[in-house]
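haha ok so turns out i had the wrong file open the whole time. this is the CORRECT one, sorry everyone. sequence first:
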Amino acid sequence: MAKETPKALEAFERYWAMGPTRSLEKLAENDIAQNLTESSPGSQLRVLKDWSAGHAWQDRLKERVSEDAEINREHNRERADKHGQRLLTAIEVDCTRLLKRLQESPGELLADDASALERLTKLYYQLAGQPLADRHELTGKGGGPVEHEHKHDHLSTEDLAAIAGASTGGDSAEGGGSSED
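then structure:
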C-alpha cells in the first residue's frame, strides 16, 4: 500500500488511544458517532481494516507497547535507585546514632541493639550493591562438578581392611582385640 495518509495516521492514533480494549469495530463505531466519517459502519470498518493491514498497525501497536513498557521499567529503576539512596542515607544516620549510643553506654550492649545494627548493616550493603562476603565457586571441566580420582591401588587388601577396622573401632579378622572372660 502507499505511504500512510494523514487520515490513516490519525485513525491509527485514535486506535492506539483506545487502550487495551481497542478493536477496529469499536474504532469504526466511534468514528461514525463522532462524525469523523460520512461512511456507513460497514464501509468505515473495511477502510480501517485496509489501513491496519497495509500499514502494519498491529506490529506498530506491539512496538509501542514494548517501548512504553521499557520507559516504565526505566522510570521504575530510577525511582528505585533514588529510593535506595534515601534509604542508604537513613540507614547511615541510624547506624551512626546507634554506634554513638553504644560507644557512650557504660559497657552494656543490648542484644536488640546489636541485632538491629547487624540487620541495618546487611541491608546497607545489599542496597549499596556490595557483597557482605566474597563467594567463590570451583567448577570442573565444562562448568561441571570437580572430579577427583581416589587411588588406593598402592594399598594392599589387608591394609585397607586394617584401615576400615580402625575407622569403625572394630577388631581386625586376625584377632588383636582383647576379651575378658
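The CA atoms of residues 50 and 148 lie 68 Å apart.
again sry for the mixup
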